[in-house]
Amino acid sequence: MYEKVDVLVIGGGIAGAIAALEVSKSYSVMMISKDRVMGGASIQASGGMAIPGIAGEDLSVFVEDTLKGGEYINDRSLVKIFAEEGASYITYLEELGMVFDQDKEGKYRIYKRTEGHSAMRNYNDRRGCHEVGRVFKEKLVKSNVKLMEHTMVYDMKSVDGRIAACSAYSLKDGKIIHIAPKAVIMASGGYGRIYSVSDMSTGLTGECHGMALDCGAELMDMEMVQFIPLAFPFPEGMRGAFIGMCSIHGPDVRLYNSLGERFMERYQPDRKEYATRDQVARAIFTEIRDGRGTERGGVIVDTTNNDKSLLPRYKASTAAVYSALARVFGEKAANWEEPFEAAPSQHFCMGGIKIDGDCRTACKNLFAAGEITGGIHGANRLGGNALTEVTVFGKLAGKSVCKEVAEADWAKESDLEQYFAEQDAMVKDLFVKKGGVSGTQIKKALGEIMWECGGIVRNQEMIEKGLAQLAELKKEAETMHAEEGDIWNYSLVEALEVKHMLKVSEAVLLSASMRKESRGSHYREDYPAKDEAYMSNMVIVQKEGKLVCEKRPIIL
C-alpha cells in the first residue's frame, strides 16, 4: 500500500512550513518532519532576523554585504532574490499573525548590527524564534496540510530524471510508509550532525542531501561548513550547544588560554575577540589542539570587564543563551561577574543542494529551500541571514512547485510496486543481521573522523586520511544491523541514516580536497592564503554510483 500526494514537503521548520502552506492553497500536500513540527533548527536561531533595507539603505548594500561575507563565491542571482524578497520579510510574517516585540511608540524594540553587516538591520525578539514557531504550528494545524511528525524519509526512487516514490519510517506508529508524489520540496536543514561536536538538532544528518544525489541533483560548496566560536565543552549532554560569539556577551570580552594568555592578540591583533566567527573559532581550536586549553577542553571567556549597565540589553536579545549559561556555570557567569569556559562547535552549513532562482534542482520535480541548499551564503553566512533565507525561499519553493504539479502526473504503478517491496525487504534485512556493527557505532566513528579530518582546520594529509577511513567505515556498514522493534526504534533510524551520512561526509572531504586555498569558513593550513584561481564553486555529482567533485566557474 502507498499514498498518492501532489507534493511531499520534507522538513518541519520555517522553510517547509511556508512552502507547505503555499502549496495547500491549490494542491494536496504532505509535510513530513523527522522531529516535531517547528522543533528543529528554525526555533533555535539566536542571531535575529536580517531585514534588507530596514535601516534605510539601498538593497544593493545588503547584497554587497552578503557577497563580501561569502567571499564572492555566492550565486549572485539567488542573493539578488534574497535581498528583494527579504525586504518585506517582517511584514509578511506579521500578516500571518505574528506579534513582534515593540516599544510604546510601535517601533520594533531591539535592533543590532551583527558581524559582517554594515547597517543596524538585525531584529531580535526577546522570545527568540518561539513566536515564529507558534504561529506556523497554529497555521499548519488549521490548514489542510497532512502533518506527519517524528517520521524519517530514508529513500527515494527516480524514474527518467523525476522522483517517483519515497519510503519513510514513522517512529510514532512503528510503520514503514510508502508515498508517490508528483513533486518533492526538501527543506530539512543542514548536515551538521556528521560532526561529533555540533549545536544542530540531532536529526540533521544529511539524508536528504544523499537522496538528492541519488535522484540526479547536485551539491555545491559542501566544504563550506560554519563553526561557532563559543559552545559548551561540558557537561556531556550539552557538549557543542550554542553559546555564540563574543559580540553577544558584551563589548569587552576577553579570551584566555590555560597559560593566562589573551591569545587573540596573537591571531588578530586589531579586532582580537571581535574578529569574524571563523577566525575566532579557528584560534580557539588551535589553542585547544596545541595543549593550551583547559582541563575540560575549552578556553576561558572573561566577561567581567564589561560595563554592567549594558547587561539587560544583551540578555534581552539572547535570553536563551544567558539562561543556559546560568544553568551550567551559575548566575555569576551569566551576570558578567565570573568567567566561563567555551570551545568551538559546528553551527551552520553554507553548502548544500544546488538550486536555480525557482528553487529547482537538476532533478526535474525536486525543489529545495532553506539551509539544505547551497549558493546563497557562499563561503560564510552573516548573522541573521538564515531566518530571512528560510522565509524567502520557502515561499518561493511553494510557488514554483505549484507550476510543476499543474502539468505533472504520478509515476506508473509498475515503477512503484517493485520499489516499495524492495524497501520493505531492506528494512527486514537490517533486523535479521546479527553480530555486525550498529548504526550508533558507525555514527560515532564518523563524527570523530569528520571533526578531526574535515573540521575547523584542514590539510591534505588529514583529508586523505579521512577519505580512507570513510572507505573502511562503508565496508563495516555492510554488516550493520538494527535492533528489532516497531515504535520509537532509534536503532533503525540510525541504521537508515548511516548510508547518507557516509555519502555527505565524502562530499565534504572531496570538496575540501579540491579547494586548495583558504576562503571563508574553509581553512587549509597547507594553503593558508586565498587564491583567485579558486574563485569557483565545488560541485558534487554522482556518476555511476561514485561521487565526483567538479570545479565550476562563478556565474556573474
From TrEMBL:
SUPFAM superfamilies: FAD/NAD(P)-binding domain, Succinate dehydrogenase/fumarate reductase flavoprotein C-terminal domain, Succinate dehydrogenase/fumarate reductase flavoprotein, catalytic domain
InterPro entries (UniProt xref): FAD-dep_OxRdtase_2_FAD-bd, FAD/NAD-bd_sf, Fum_R/Succ_DH_flav-like_C_sf, Fum_Rdtase/Succ_DH_flav-like_C, SdhA/FrdA/AprA, Succ_DH/fumarate_Rdtase_cat_sf
Keywords recorded for this protein, A-Z: Coiled coil, Flavoprotein, Oxidoreductase
Active site (UniProt): R277 (proton acceptor)
Signal sequence residues: none
The keyword Coiled coil is assigned to this record: yes
FAD-dependent oxidoreductase 2 FAD-binding domain ranges (all copies): 6-387
Limits of the Fumarate reductase/succinate dehydrogenase flavoprotein-like C-terminal domain: 444-553
Pfam families listed in its UniProt record: FAD_binding_2 (PF00890), Succ_DH_flav_C (PF02910)
Top-level taxonomic group: Bacteria
Gene3D superfamilies: FAD/NAD(P)-binding domain (3.50.50.60), Fumarate reductase/succinate dehydrogenase flavoprotein-like, C-terminal domain (1.20.58.100), Succinate dehydrogenase/fumarate reductase flavoprotein, catalytic domain (3.90.700.10)
Name of this protein: Fumarate reductase flavoprotein subunit
Organism per entry: Pelotomaculum propionicicum
Gene name in the database record: frdA_3
